[in-house]
Amino acid sequence: MVKIIYKDFEGTVREVDAKVGETVMETAIKNGIPGIDADCGGACACATCHVYVDASFMEKVGTPEDMEQSMLDFAENVTETSRLSCQIPVSEDLEGLTVTTPEAQH
Question: Most buried pick, 20, 26, 43, 63, via CB within 10 A?
């Protein structure tokens, strides 16, 4: 299991264990994390799982592919650390990953 830390825009922290191979979005849904709706179920067809990745993890999670970048165009308040959590697979390298949900998703 890999520890993932979800923060909301107010600073509330929720720490959960994630299975390697699942996505950050799937882990959020299974653990009832507010602010990650995942309306499309992880098909990269909406932006309701938008998160801000902690800058120290950006190299490990990588940059968005074209399809994800297109979906981020529909999200509010996108930054250079924005990612769709459905497109971030959990790996051992992501131990302690912190993501923050945007205020617009609450």
Answer: 26
